[in-house]
Each structure stands twice: as structure tokens, then as C-alpha cells.
Specification:
The chain is an alpha/beta fold and 297 residues long. Helices cover 27% and strands 29% of the residues. Helix 4 runs antiparallel to helix 5.
Length: 297
């Protein structure tokens, strides 16, 4: 269910075609294509090791793919101009850059590189999160370093904000504030946001689109509101398992249960009927968390 990519579109903040990456004998990503429309908030979800961070780094030109190409605002990710870089805000999973500097000095230094740097936002955020400008970055806790990295990325006033598991080291209050900030910027400024997460509830709060990474492929990429009534689990009784077609229309995953029954996750097009498999089949509509578990289990 990868996005179909047409010719390169400079209006798209992020676009990639057939990205692939291997580490030794392990395939992390294979023939992955994706397009993120302007103003979207895309939540990228997948189990640990699914390749979320690798995909993000290749999209931003921070890692070389084995095959395929990525573009940001129409420019090849591996050759981004300074003008495009100034439109980006990025927080890696482990933000350790410039750790030898003090918080305030680092933010002042970085701010000189960005014409839309929001000094007032920096001051408010430091105060709200109780971060002392004189504190050395190296002496901050992981959660505090994450907050400083978020301040730095948001102060850029980015057109594209990319966050790699931004809530991993945050407490619940800070996480809620971050989600509020993402929703605010996307709603008021039209900022395009790509964030990876393992916290489904966070994704449901702010995302307009969702993408699942599993087994090196993008198995789902859809607007969040289209998930409703489109994905279901069919549970086929033991006596009927042998009569199931080898593959159902819209099938995403299939597994045998310990009792011998079979569970199949299917997607249907809008207004289309569910597959008819007889009276001994149970159909359960799936919410986002259940769908994630079923597809990636």
C-alpha cells in the first residue's frame, strides 16, 4: 500500500521513490515510496527496529540509501541548498549535538543561522520547561536534552518539522505540551510535520495521516480519518479455514491462532462491502492501536 509517486513535485515537502537500505545481511527498507502533502501531520509508526529512524535520516539526506531517491521541497535530499535547510526543523532520537556548549549559548549560536528564529518563543519555552540558559548541555538529563532540542527545532519556525520519537524521554506533562505545540503550528502556520512514535495515543491526538512500517515495507499510508470503518479483522472458524482463498481482496496480514482459527486483517475501499466468507466468520472493526498490533505482530 505504498503511495504512488508521480513526477517529482516541488510543492511536496517530502517525497521519496523506491528507497532501500541494508545493514550487512538485514534488509531495513525495501522499495519504499512516500509523499507527504503540505500541511500534513504524518505519524510514522512501527516496532523498534522497523527502520523509522533510517527512513527519516535518508529523507533528510543524513544517510545514503542503497537505492532510490528522496527530495525535500523539490531538491535532492543529498544536495539540499542552504535555503531549504533553513526551512527545516529536526530533532533526532538522541540529540547530542553541541553538548559541550551551554544551553543559552547553543541557542544563540544556532539562531544566527536562521532568519525566522523566534527569540520570544525560546525565552518562553526555557522558562516553561525550567531550563537554565547557563546550564551545560552535557549535564542535562535525557529528558532535558530532548526539550532543548525541541526548542531549537521549533524556534526555526520551520516549514517542515521532523521529529524522531520526540516523546521518548519526556514526562507526560512535557509530552502533552509538545503535542499541543505540534497541533498549533500545523493548524495556524501550515507547518508540515513528520514524527515517528511508538505511542499510538500521541499519534491519534495530532496526526492527520498515518504510515506503518513493517518487515522493511510501508504496509499502510492513509489519512487518519479514513481508518474509521475501513479496516477489520476477520476471524474464521477452524472448520472453514481450509476453504479460505489464498488471498482476500485488501488483505494486509494473516495468522493462525493457537485454537486453529485464522485471523485476517483486511482493508476495504470506501463504500465497498467486506469479504463474504460465510456465517462462521466474525468481523471486528479495528481502531488504530488494534490495527497496529494486528499488522505488526
Amino acid at each position: 500500500m505504498n503511495a504512488v509517486i508521480a513526477a517529482r513535485d516541488p510543492a511536496l515537502p517530502v517525497q521519496c521513490e523506491n528507497l532501500s537500505k541494508r545493514y550487512d545481511t538485514r534488509t531495513v527498507l525495501q522499495d519504499l515510496s512516500l509523499a507527504i502533502p503540505a500541511g500534513a501531520v504524518l505519524g510514522l509508526i512501527g516496532r523498534n527496529g522497523a527502520g523509522k529512524s533510517t527512513l527519516i535520516r535518508m529523507l533528510l539526506g543524513l544517510q545514503l540509501p542503497d537505492a532510490g531517491v528522496a527530495h525535500v521541497f523539490g531538491e535532492p535530499s543529498l544536495r539540499l541548498s542552504d535555503a531549504v535547510k533553513r526551512r527545516l526543523g529536526y530533532v533526532p532520537q538522541q540529540p547530542d549535538a553541541l553538548a559541550w556548549m551551554r544551553v543559552g549559548d547553543m541557542l544563540d549560536f544556532v539562531g544566527r543561522m536562521y532568519p525566522k528564529w523566534d527569540v520570544a518563543f525560546v525565552q518562553r519555552a526555557l522558562q516553561r520547561w525550567q531550563l537554565a540558559p547557563a546550564q551545560p548541555l552535557a549535564k542535562l538529563s535525557p529528558g532535558e536534552r530532548q526539550r532543548v532540542a525541541l526548542i531549537r527545532a521549533l524556534a526555526v519556525t520551520p516549514d517542515l518539522l521532523v521529529l524522531d520519537e520526540p516523546a521518548a524521554a519526556l514526562d507526560p506533562v512535557a509530552r502533552r505540551e509538545l503535542l499541543r505545540e505540534i497541533a498549533l503550528r500545523a493548524g495556524e502556520s501550515g507547518t508540515t510535520v513528520l514524527f515517528s512514535t511508538n505511542i499510538v495515543s500521541d499519534l491519534e491526538r495530532v496526526a492527520s495521516h498515518v504510515a506503518f512500517l513493517h518487515d522493511s515495507r510501508l504496509v499502510l499510508n492513509t489519512p487518519l480519518d479514513e481508518l474509521r470503518d475501513r479496516y477489520a479483522r476477520l476471524v474464521i472458524a477452524v472448520a472453514s479455514v481450509a476453504r479460505i482463498p489464498q488471498r482476500l481482496p485488501g488483505e494486509l496480514s494473516r495468522r493462525r491462532r493457537p485454537d486453529g482459527s485464522c485471523a485476517i486483517v483486511v482493508a476495504r475501499a470506501p463504500h465497498e462491502p467486506w469479504p463474504a466468507l460465510g456465517g462462521d466468520t466474525r468481523l471486528d472493526l479495528l481502531g488504530l492501536e488494534d490495527l497496529f498490533i494486528e499488522v505488526t505482530e
